[in-house]
Structure formats: C-alpha cells, structure tokens
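Objective 1b: paired records.
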Amino acid sequence: MTEVTRAEYCVIACAEAWRDAGEVLASPMGVIPSVGARLARRTFAPDLLLTDGEALLVGPDGAVEGWLPYRQHLALVTGGRRHVMMGASQIDRYGNQNISCIGDWARPTRQLLGVRGAPVNTLNNPTSYWVPRHSRRVFVEKVDMVCGVGYDRAADAPYHRIPRVVSDLGVFDFATPDRSMRLASVHPGVTVAQVREATGFALAASDEVPYTREPSARELALIRDVIDPAGTRAREVGH
C-alpha cells in the first residue's frame, strides 16, 4: 500500500461519522465529506441513504435508487433521521458554529454565506463539521454569530448531537463532562502541540492522543480507483 495522504486520512475520519448510523440520510457538504459518505455506504454503513442534493436518492455509483419528495425530506430533517456534515467559518469549544458574518452583526467586517439552515440542522438532527484549514481564525473562543447551535445552548433539543468535528489536523468530539471540545485523534504527521497552537481556546485532550485510523487496503482502493479517481480530495486538503 502506497503512502496514505493527509486528504485520505480526512476522508476516513469523515466516513467514520456515519459508522453504525443505520438508515439515515447523509448530507455531506464538501468534497472530502462527500467522498467519506460514499466510502461509508460502500463499506461499513450499507443502509446509509445518499442523495443527489435535489430530489433523488442515489447509490454510491450515482445510480438512482428512489425519489425523495420535499415533504419526506423535511420529515427526515425534523425527526433526527439525517446526519449533516457542514462547514464552519468559526466554531467554538461547545460546537457553536458561524457561517454568517465576521465581526459585529450590525456592522460586520465580512459577509459570509448567511445563517441558512444551520439552526434547523443542529437542533433537529445530528450535525458534524468539516474544516479543511484548521487555524485560530476558525477554532475561536467565541463565535461572532451563532448559526449552528452548540451544546451550551441546546439542552432541550431532543435530536441535537454533534458526533464529530474533522479538520486537516485531527478529529474532535465533545465527550467531556461539560460537553466542551476534545481532541479525539491526530492525523499521522501531526502533533498535539500543533493542534493546540492552531486552536483559539483550551482544548481537552487525554494524556495519550491516538492517531486517526489507517484506511484498509480495500478502502484505499475504493477512494483512489472508484470514488475519487480524479483526486479531487487533494484540492481541499493541500498536504
């Protein structure tokens, strides 16, 4: 097996978000989460539902498997049967996410995507995050505007859950007593000190942080030869 790239470790980390998910709708946003969702469907999550992003359910090869009318899509969204992997322009220690603006809301220094569906996503179904460039500008002490709702704001939301955050440096979860972010694994070639230096808040971590798992030979072949033969994953993570 040739050397595994950082992008491929990120694919594996994203795919693991859907392990044991059962029959839920995967909504990956971004190249690497999309490759990860298709890899999960082909291997350890065969019941995962994939969509073309419009109205069709598709198989891992893109073949149409069914029709997903808008009303049924909303039922999945509001009933906890969808798992989204979104991006984050900012994210804080409790998983509050910002994709709307940088700076004060009344006079922002930069306008971004807008709130969009982030509040509904995070309050009504599991939501993970993908950050291709881990830095203190993204992992901040306090987000400038709350779009995706974190653990400190969602005590009464029955389907709220943030299974994981994946970045180009490692994998993070919220398995701490106060539901603050924890470093669950680092990608090979990355140190815990590097992750702490690139994070704008105190990050929980065990004494020995493991490495993100290696892909199997079959998984690597699927990524390289079947799912993403053009290598688009490398454009999202440049190392």
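Objective 1b, second protein:
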Amino acid sequence: MDFNTKFTPHTWPDHPEQATMEGKNKVVGFWIFLACEVVLFASLFATYLALKNKGPAGMEFTTQSLFELPLAFAMTMLLLTSSLTSVYAIYHMRNFNFKAMQTWLGITVLLGLGFLGLEIYEFQHYVGLGFTFNQSAFSTSFYSLVGTHGFHVTLGLVWITTLMLRNAKRGLNLYNAPKYFVAALYWHFIDVVWVFIFTVVYLMGVIG
C-alpha cells in the first residue's frame, strides 16, 4: 500500500502498523530495542537485590521503615490505567478513528503525568528524611532503578505528546500509524517494568 492512499474506515487495513514494509521493519526493530531494554532493567534489578538494605553499620533506613505501600499502589493504579487507555487508543487507530485515538492518548499522557508527580513527591520525601542518592549502597541502587524507570516514563510522555502535536492536522496514514503503535508498545513495556518494581521493591520490601 502507498503512504498517500486516501482511506476510509472501510478500506483502512486491520493492522495498519504492518501494512507496509517500512511499518513491519519499525515494529521488528522496536522489539529488538525492547530486548536491549530488558537487559538494562534486569541489571538494575539484580544490583538492587544485591544491595537492598546494605549500608553503613546501624543504617537508619530499611525497606520496612521507608517504603509506603499506599503511595506505591496509587502510582501503580495510575500507570496500569494509562496502559489501558493506550490500548483504547490503538483500538481506535485500527478503526481509523483519529479523534478518538488522540483523545485516549491525551488521557494516557495525563495519567502518566500523575504518576510522575507522585514519584517526584516520593523522592522529595525520602531526600527530606536523609535518604539521598549517595547515603548508602541501598539508596544508590534504589534511585538508579526507580529513577531510570521514571526517566523512561518521561521519554514516553514526550514521545506520545510529540506524535499527537505533530500529526494533529495530518490525521492517520500508513506512515504515522506504525509510530503510534510502537509508542504504545513502549508505554506497555514501561508499565510492565513498573509492575516488577512495585512487586520486588515495594511489596516485597514492606512485607519482608
């Protein structure tokens, strides 16, 4: 199919992200990129587990005394809900409903911003307590893991917002459909990573 073909909801392909060779290559290439990201986060998780609760003798901060499950749970709900709204966005993309897709992506961005706001609040709270990046091996591994994820969330929000603004007047076509798809795929990835962070860092940390 040609990028400049004029489509209607009836002629729009079922999987527009893979309707062209370029689109297929983008999707395959992005899966390779995500495999590299898995290696990155696996290394950060391994480092955190090795250094958890490790530090100077008589260390003041431990996972049980520091982490608060209600806040982490609220962050988790925001991010999981944003993953659901991105699913709705791709559903409407595949049904050639540009306006609905943009709306659901906008909601995804708002939920992601809410998550980042809570994470910034959490970090500020910990720093105020004296749990800073270089306070101990434990704190360094914690901020490295959770902060790297937060950085990925920020990149995802910038990516989705840029797509929305750049294509606001262009509408959907076979050139930008794969871009929306891989952006949503990236968002799902960082949501899955957060589920592991919530389980390994917060849940297991609080209940021991």
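The chain has a mean pLDDT of 92. The CA atoms of residues 18 and 25 lie 8 Å apart.
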